[in-house]
Design goal:
Helix content is 39%, strand content 19%. By secondary structure, it is of the alpha/beta class. It has a single domain, classed as 3-Layer(aba) Sandwich (Rossmann fold), CATH 3.40.50. The chain has an 8-stranded mixed sheet with strand order 1-2-6-5-7-8-9-10, sandwiched between helices. A two-stranded antiparallel sheet has the order 3-4. The longest helix is centred in the first third of the chain and has 14 residues.
């Protein structure tokens, strides 16, 4: 499905019913926006790993502008600010009230930024393997220098410089860096997943050569009012767990969970435990004002 909003067209998909039978009555389930990472990837990496959550939530997946199945446009519009405003426009387009936000990696940055700007529209906030400031860039380079192979260090130069020339180079990057992202990296499974994805070189280049270098919402996190779950991976190289700890400390009453046997891709390393923690959080943390 597609929504023509603002100056673009956003692709979105829905999993699970919102209105369900509950004995003698009908019950509305919460609606969650599942916010993909990258930038430059799409929503498909969450399928089917997040599908079990549709038993408790109606899941709305979408691709950021210029990425996946969403419309392309001037690459200078591929910004964090536009991603936040596109998400708000999509919420309004769908006629939704408060929503659950589930954002991983760059999607977590979008979720944090949205929750700071529109706290009244968020019922629950769940951010996974993410960061609140650009300091993750220097720390990731330090970790790569300690743990990475020569091949990984060489190909990651294209990431830091925002210098990917085509999709083939981006696919190669994710294949070479797979063992850094996931402790349980399976080359065949990873290749299949990335072959399903529609990648955007412009989106990742614009981000890493531009706005991510100045990204910082840390001082505004106190504005977030929704119950918040912050999840990090102990062995995450690009969004190290110290940044999850920092986020949790800055958001009032946030719940922090560090997964000891995970890298950046927690949904690949500890998928069942991740879903259990998210589901449990939604059950035991009622929305403010509910």
């Amino acid at each position: 499905m597609r929504a023509k909003i603002r100056d673009t067209e956003i692709y979105f998909d829905v999993e699970g019913s919102s209105l369900v039978v509950d004995g003698p009555r009908m019950r509305e389930k919460p609606i969650a926006f599942v916010i993909h990472g990258g930038p430059g990837a799409d929503h498909t990496s969450y399928k089917p790993s997040f599908s079990p959550l549709s038993r408790k939530l109606q899941l709305v997946y979408f691709d950021h502008r210029g990425q996946g199945r969403s419309a392309r446009g001037p690459k200078e519009t591929y910004t964090l600010d536009n991603n936040v405003e596109d998400m708000e426009a999509l919420r309004q387009h769908l006629g939704l009230d408060k929503i659950v936000l589930i954002g991983s990696s760059y999607g977590g940055m979008v979720a944090l930024s949205y929750a700071v700007r529109y706290p009244q529209n968020v019922s629950h906030l769940i951010v996974i393997a993410t960061t609140a400031s650009s300091r993750f860039l220097q720390r990731a380079q330090e970790i790569l220098a300690e743990r990475g192979t020569d091949e990984q260090k060489a190909i990651t130069a294209k990431l830091w410089d925002g210098a990917f020339e085509n999709e083939e180079q981006l696919h190669e990057y994710f294949q070479v860096m797979g063992p850094m992202y996931s402790l349980t990296h399976d080359p065949a499974k990873s290749s299949s997943s990335w072959n399903r994805a529609i990648l955007s070189v412009d989106a990742i280049n614009v981000a890493f050569a531009g706005f991510l270098r100045d990204y910082n919402v840390l001082d505004d996190l106190h504005k977030i009012t929704a119950p918040t779950l912050v999840i990090g991976g102990r062995h995450d190289w690009i969004c190290a767990p110290e940044f999850s700890e920092e986020i949790a400390k800055a958001i009032p009453n946030a719940d922090l969970r560090i997964f000891e046997n995970s890298g950046h891709s927690i949904r690949a390393d500890e998928p069942e435990a991740l879903l259990d923690v998210i589901a449990g959080f939604l059950v035991y943390q009622p929305s403010c004002g509910a």
